[in-house]
């Protein structure tokens, strides 16, 4: 499942790809069906077609990370090598592997909890980080405030 979105990553027109086999455990998940192994396998060829068919995007957003980190990293490296796109990841986990920080430009962390609200509420427990890559290392900048009005 894919769609072009404008509100998920600031200043980006993103192609959002829903990834199945979600490891998240959000009690109030709006996409609980993504915990199952469903949909088409995401391959380099499928990515090529999706990117070609969605002219004008500047970001590829993975909605979930699945349960195969090596494939996610491989596809992310492929995108970096072949396209001038930013890459983002929405994870329902509170922390992800360092290897993901090394390749992604944006990472959202935290399980959704209605008690705290979504990213556009100042009370949210979720955080969106812009990842800065410099001289072989990276650091994350919390840009969650960009969703607050």
What does this structure look like?
This protein is of the alpha/beta class and 149 residues long. The chain has 3 helices and 7 strands; from the N terminus they run E-E-H-E-H-E-H-E-E-E. The protein has helices at residues 44-53, 69-82, 98-103, and strands at 2-5, 14-18, 59-63, 86-90, 106-109, 127-134, 137-142. The chain has a 7-stranded mixed β-sheet with strand order 1-2-3-4-5-6-7. Strand 1 (2-5) and strand 2 form a beta hairpin. The model has no long low-confidence stretch (mean pLDDT 91).
Concise account of the structure shown:
By secondary structure, the protein is an alpha/beta fold. It is 20% helix and 25% strand.
Query: Largest beta sheet, briefly?
Result: 7 strands, mixed
**Terminal Cα separation, in Å?**
30 Å
**Average pLDDT, all residues:** 91
Count the DSSP helices.
3
Instruction: Using the CA coordinates, give the radius of gyration.
Output: 15 Å
Unreliably modeled segments: none
**How are the strands of the largest sheet arranged?**
1-2-3-4-5-6-7
Number of strands: 7
Report the β-strand fraction as a percent range: 15-25%
Globally, the shape reads globular
Strand/helix succession: EEHEHEHEEE
Structural class: alpha/beta
The helix fraction, in percent, is: 10-25%
